[in-house]
Amino acid sequence: MSTTSSFAKKCLLSLFDELIGHDGFGNLKVEMRILRRGQKEVIIDCGKQYRFVVDFQPKGVEANHTPEIATLLE
Fold first, then answer.
1. Is the pLDDT of residue 64 over 60?
2. Among candidates 4, 52, 17, which has minimal Cα distance to 31?
3. Parallel, antiparallel, or unpaired for β 48-55 and 39-46?
4. For residue 6, how far is the Cα from the chain centroid?
5. Rounded to an integer, what distance in angstroms lies between the CA atom of residue 16 and that of residue 63?
6. Is 38 left (phi over 0), alpha (psi -120 to 50) or beta?
7. Looking at residue 35, what DSSP letter applies?
8. Confidence class of residue 27 from pLDDT cuts 50, 70 and 90?
9. pLDDT at 18 (0 to 100)
């Protein structure tokens, strides 16, 4: 039951915006671990935990694809 990384990115950015707008203390933690070939588990912890299983290509498979930070934040 894997998802694309865009779901995890949307969740992360939404939580970040929520913390920035909050008038007190906040904590945001992201963990990633390799599950099996071609998959990673992404855990976003911000009081609640959001877990995603994301398909990925190991580095070197797509030599010409290097995401830039501006692209990730769109």
1. no
2. 52
3. antiparallel
4. 8
5. 30
6. left
7. -
8. very high
9. 92
Identify the bridge partners of residue 31 per DSSP, sorted by sequence position: 43
Residue appearing with tokens 């290097």: 66
Q: What is each CA distance from 48 to 27, 28, 36, 56, in whole angstroms?
A: 11, 10, 25, 25
Q: How far apart are CA 7 and CA 69, in angstroms?
A: 17
pLDDT of 65 strictly over 90? no
Pairing, β 29-34 against β 48-55: unpaired
Phi, psi of 6 (to 5 degrees): -65, -35
Q: Which amino acid is located at 62 in the chain?
A: E
Could you give the C-alpha distances from 69 to 50, 53, 63, 66, 74, in angstroms and in order? 22, 22, 17, 10, 9
